[in-house]
Design brief:
alpha+beta; Barwin-like endoglucanases
Amino acid sequence: MIETLAPTRIRTVARDFSTLPGWLADDHRAAFRAFRQSALVLSDHPPKSRQLSVDTVALAEALSRASTLPADVSDNQARAFFEAEFEAFEIMPETGAGFFTGYYEPIVMGSRIKTDRFKTPLYRAPDDLVELDPASIPANIDPSYRFARNNTGALTPYFDRAEIEAGALKGRGLEFVYVEDPVDAFFIHIQGAARIELADGDTMRVTYAAKSGHPYTPIGRVLIELGELAKGKATMATIRAWLAANREQAGSIMARNRSFIFFREAPVDNPGCGPIAAAKVPLSAERSLAVDRLVHSFHTPIWVETTLPDGDAFRRLMISQDTGTAIVGPARGDIFFGSGDRAGAIAGEMASAGRFVVLAPRGGPPPGAPVQ
């Protein structure tokens, strides 16, 4: 057993594939198809070196080799590919275990124009919103912010959720689609994407474009602190039920999450796939994983062992293809469960400890090892 300790204190322990419960029983073809999706965008979006220091040159080479293989390889061939190309290293977080939540693509009704029914807008990214360089955050802006406002040449914090919903962006023509329920819009912000069935019969997909920069605040935690929900009972279902039953207070509660998401329209090329993720590939249900992008390189295979809300074991090889504001830490993962209400019911209840095992290219330095 090899144990390494990075300067960032991310500990990893080498594991043999034979010691991973469920490894042989997994559908490696599905994992290979998701990995091959990453290979198709390699030339424009190669993996970048991050805090864990996975060998991204070797990872890119493995992606290239995957692209030369048929998409319909057998399960044995797919498993042999991953075992030949990678070595397994379990992340050993200071908390003692990894932690996994879930997300999905909501499907809601909407309209491209504002109507009496559809009047809650989603916004395009404004032209005065700029992404900050983490190495040179202005002194007047919280160092955790990644976006700011170009205010006639000076950078200032951008408008937050309450300010935008009070009209800070009114009259700028940024609204491009409207949904019926402000609570639906709020959860689209949390998920970062949605499929919208338009009143004219067409389907629109919206996906993340940018954010205000303010920190994400889980309103479930706010409701627990206010005594409105019991500790451990804040799920998507219970939060939505509370908001629906308390319409007069809902707006102020949702505004406690100052983070505001801007969207862009994306084509629905394949209704069977999810939206285009941060890694610029379409998400694959139960095979795409959102990770901390400051720690992990996109396109890295990750073995996940955790428990679903119904108590069933979830043991899958997944591909790091997305990220999220609330996904912070080396062993923190957010599982994409797919589109629609069924996926949402699972994602909304998902909150489980588990094992987070990174597959690093063979021959390179172990992930988490100090850079020589």
